[in-house]
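Continuing the batch. This is chain 6 of the set; chains 1 through 5 are on the previous pages. Same settings as before, nothing changed between runs. Recording input and output for traceability.
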Amino acid sequence: MWSKILIEDNVKEHKQVKTIVERFNKSPVQYISSYEDYFQKVKKPYLQKRSDLQLILAQKKGSLVKLTPAAYGVGNEAHYYFIHAYNCIYECQYCYLQGYFQSPDIVLFVNHDEIIEEIKQIYNDTKSEVWFHAGEFSDSLALSHITEEWPMYWNAFSEMPNAYLELRTKSANIKSIENLQPLKNIIVSFSLSTDSAIKEYDSKTAPLKARLSAMQKLIQKGFKVGIHFDPIIVTDTVISEYTQLIEQMSEYFQPKDISYISIGVVRFTKDVYQQVQKNYPDSPMLGGPFYTSFDNKVRYSRPLRLHLLRAIESQLHKAGYKEQQVYLCMERD
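Output for chain 6:
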């Protein structure tokens, strides 16, 4: 799976590192002083991940927990994200990581104890409810059966009742969490797209039915589950396809089983948009029509965005999802 595994000297005795190296014992190993000496030092084409993907095991330094952008998450509480990894094994054509990092190589950080301590500090300093999100720079569950970090976070959040943890994923890989004790303040949220969009744009991710089955299994075990319809991509049949998706969801769970649903339309920074054009020049997604929007991102026009968002929101309400369950992602009112 990995062309090489690079390991920082200061984590080579870490339990998680030893487990990963043993699992991939056919991959050559190189010890390094700092991941920053290798990751992004030389620009590596994004699509090289298909044939030459390296794994880097390291300690994350600096700020480990950061405030999210505005219009991120449900509610008016403070929202933070924490960095447990860089990059993703999946290959989604719209992924902003292709324009954010100069390398597709995977970096897994193993100092989760320090991340958790920073989360606890923020929690103790916050007088109201606060959210922490995993999955900003890497899928939360795709490699979790290998990294096995989430039980540590379960233990921590069991002692912080006013702190909420969200794990975001496009996988169906729930092996590492399905036998943990469900907690009311931990939400596993799945990004769902129409079946045709997943097949067209979400290479290597779990098929729609696999995601729905994983959601159903977690719900039956008592887990809190959320949904992200994001990014929605324009086609001639997009609204009818999302209507079919909502109907398909009802075969696996009911509206009362879902904590929230976010709806967002595809968007890019200018750098990411240029990378998408370079990496996927024939993608139907590039048909647009795109414009530079209020936040200097490349988006559909506001009337088109609102038409899509309101139409899909209406279908959710018709299916029984309440107004307070559904919110628009990364949109101004």
